Amino acid sequence: MVGSSSAGGDLRTPQFNGTNYDFWAVKIETILIAFDLWEVIEVGIQSHKSPEVATGSGDEESEAEQTTLHASTTSREDKIKNAKALSLIQGALTDDLFPRIRNEKTTKGAWDILSREFRGDKKVRVVKLQAVREDFQYKRMAEGESLDGYLAKFFTTVNNLKSLGEDVSENRIVQKLLMSLSRRYKSIVSIIEETRDLDVLRAEEVIAYVKVYNKREDLHDERDKLTGTEKAFSSLKIRNNQAYSSHKGFQGRPSKKWQLQDRRGPNSLPNKNLNNYNNSSWNNTAWGSSQVSVKPKC
């Protein structure tokens, strides 16, 4: 921002660096209108011809002098207005852009130079307008896109249309906004279309309805998320309890091996040694010979 002195005190004019000319031009126009200086751009400085002083005596000479004085005063006021308006525009430009209007002595001339370079002539504006129209026509809100982010992009496109001379009615904005919202807002869009008159409905009202609905949906989503988290923790707790009970019951029961041994008694031999009772070599070794030699009878 650049400060400029004025009759009403310090005046802050928006700095222009070569981008967003349309926004800057609107701000400068408002400032110039507020200080009664816009006419030097809209109309320009009117050239005054010096009136012929009528020769005569008495009242005729006095009237001629008054006419000359009045014409001179008006011309001086125009010059002062032009200088004030031109100083505001010069002070609002960066050092890189100032040379473009350095040699221009009128505010209207400086304004026209900036407008042709950064806004474009009629043909360039037509091409830009077609591109912005197409962007506006096919603009849609993506699934999962934030409402505030989409509204910012939407109204940027609307402002671009207006700055290029497009007449964008309120009804056109409302209908496009309702049509371009994502499926998340299908319910509130249906309610608005069925209960409100779209011919008199303003975009600000639509935004208010949609934002309230979006806030409620966010609360529902948070509640569902919290409920799902609680269910997950509850399920995990039940599984842990079941696992603990199963482990505790397993520790309280003896193994099958020891159960089998208890049924046979503590002195029972392992199964693999039971079949060795019929083994004569084992019997001979352990208990001596259990067989009696019998001589055959002749």
From TrEMBL:
Chain spans, region Disordered: 49-76, 244-298
Name of the protein: Uncharacterized protein
Sequence intervals crossing the membrane: none
Any Pfam family: Retrotran_gag_2
Source species of the chain: Populus alba
Amino acid composition bias (Polar residues), ranges on this chain: 65-74, 285-298
Compositional bias per record (Low complexity), positions renumbered to this chain: 266-284
